[in-house]
Every structure is written in structure tokens, then in C-alpha cells.
Amino acid sequence: MHPVLSALLPVVVLTALGLLAGRLRWIRPEATRDLANLVFLVLSPALLFRTMAAAEPSRVPLLPVASYFAACVLVFAGTLLVRGWTRAAAVQGLAATFSNTFMVGVPLVSLVWGEAGLAPLFTLISLHALVLLTLATLALELAPGSRRTEGGAWRAAARAVRQAVVHPVPLPILAGLAWGQTGWALPAVLDKPLQLLGQALGPIALLMVGVSLAGIRIGERWREALVLSLLKVVLLPLLVAGLGLALGLSGLPFAVMVVAACLPIGANVFLFSQRYGVVEDEVTAAVGLSTLLSLASLSVALALLAG
């Protein structure tokens, strides 16, 4: 089987099974919160901690990660420039840059490159929400005409930073890195359960993506959703690849960054739009549509980079 097809087929099949289970109500909407807690509070910390405990930070180049965020800032700033600096444009800019690095990115990269690919991805994940949510919060709170109190923007930014750091994703990454610096091997009695929990993450996370899609309706906002989706899964990957090539980047970390840019819009954008009550329907539709369109951009990226 072609390597690209062998990498994407499990992703498509598991997501489709989740979609079917959601539509047939084998997994009811009320149960998705419990499944999400299982993924984020049990399975993901096990995989993140175990992988980063064995990683060598000195061997993870930071320049590819920096070029990824540089491309995100360009897309975000371009969105504000074209659409005007408004609260709606700030949320749209976040949607055009915030990837589903965890629920889709982790199982996909694991299938394609194994643990070698997870190290640079986890480096990106550890900074992803911190950088982009803080940027969007500042842009939204400082937008002309926004109602805010003295220091409100900075308090909101501080809250975004705190929520991005004190979170089940970055904390086990930092803990794993700290353990790795001790030079101690994980005891077998701890390492084996962590390994089994980590192996369960990919399938369950992809099923959860499908179940979530079952409840999304694109509806009347499909044109706006299509624009956001194309910005996210086409323009952002092209910028990440272009900046990386201009900087002379190559190899696995560069490939992982391009693939991460092709991923669909992350669920945090939907939660962000809900919190501020801005373009909620548009973002909801874009999350679903970008998930479908990302299959095409991921196929192209993997065909060019999987080797």
C-alpha cells in the first residue's frame, strides 16, 4: 500500500466510525464530555510524559517551531488587515491559525513517523495554545470599540497564559522533560502502563473527532466557513513551508511543522468564540469543514514529505 494512503486510511476510517457512532447515537452527546475527560486527563498525560521523558531537547531544533509561529502571525495579522481590527476578525484570525494538533495531529504523526515525529510535535504543542490564545486575546480585548475596563486586556491575556500553561497538555510535557534531565530510566512497573495508555490515545481521540463532527451543522455560514478553512489548511501550510525553505530547513522537524499546519481548526477556537460570543456559527461550521478539507491538504503534504 502507498505510504500516504497507509498513513491516512486509519485516520479516515476511525473518524468515520466515530461519525457513524455519533449519528446512530451509540455514543450520545452527553457521553462525549466523559470521553473527552478520558482523553485529556488520563490518556494524553501518559503519552506526553513518557515521550518527553525519553526525548533529548538539544536534538529538537527550535527554528522550525519558530518559523511555524511566524507564519501564524502573518496569517493572523493579514486577517486583521483585510477584515479590519474587530473582535470578529480576531476570532477569525485565530481560526485561520489554530490547529487541532492534539486530537488529530498526535495520532497522525504517530502513525507516519512514530515517536521520532512526536518529539518536535510536542515541542510545538507545548507553546501552541500559549502563543496563539494570548495573541488572539490581546487582539480581541484591544480591538477598537471593545468594552473593557482599565487593564482588562492585560488581565485577560494573563488569564489566557495561565490557562494555557496549567492544562493537562503542557504540564506532562514539562514534567517529562524534567524527568529526562535526571538521566533516570522509567521503572518498568510505571513505563508499561504509560505505554499502554499512550497507545489507546490515537484510536479514541480519532473516534472522538468523528463523534464531534456528528453534531456540527455547516448550514448557512458555509461561505464564511470555507474561507476560514482554506486559510487554515491551504494558506498557512504554504507559508510554513515557504518560510522553512527560505530559512534552509529540511528533515523531520520541518516536515512535522508543515503537516501540523495542514491540520483542521482546533476545538479551542470554538470555545474561544463561545466565551466572547463572536462569530460562533461561522467558527462551528469552519471546524467541521476544515476537518474534511484537511484530508486533501494532508494527503498532498504527506506525499511530498513523508519520506
Describe the structure in your own words:
This protein has a single domain (3-305), classed as Na+/H+ antiporter like fold. The chain contains 13 helices and no strands. It has helices at 3-23, 29-53, 63-83, 87-95, 101-113, 115-141, 152-165, 170-182, 188-214, 222-246, 251-262, 267-276, 280-305. It starts with a helix and ends with a helix.
Features:
single chain; 79% helix; Na+/H+ antiporter like fold; 307 residues; mainly alpha; 13 helices
Distance between the termini: 15 Å
Structural class: mainly alpha
The CATH class is Mainly Alpha
- Tell me the β content: under 5%
Low-confidence stretches: none
CATH topology heading: Na+/H+ antiporter like fold
Question: Could you give a short description of this structure?
Answer:
By secondary structure, the chain is mainly alpha-helical.
Annotate the secondary structure layout.
Blueprint: H1 3-23, H2 29-53, H3 63-83, H4 87-95, H5 101-113, H6 115-141, H7 152-165, H8 170-182, H9 188-214, H10 222-246, H11 251-262, H12 267-276, H13 280-305
Helix pairs in contact: 1-5, 1-9, 1-13, 2-8, 2-9, 3-4, 3-10, 4-6, 5-6, 5-9, 6-7, 6-8, 6-11, 10-11, 10-13, 11-13, 12-13
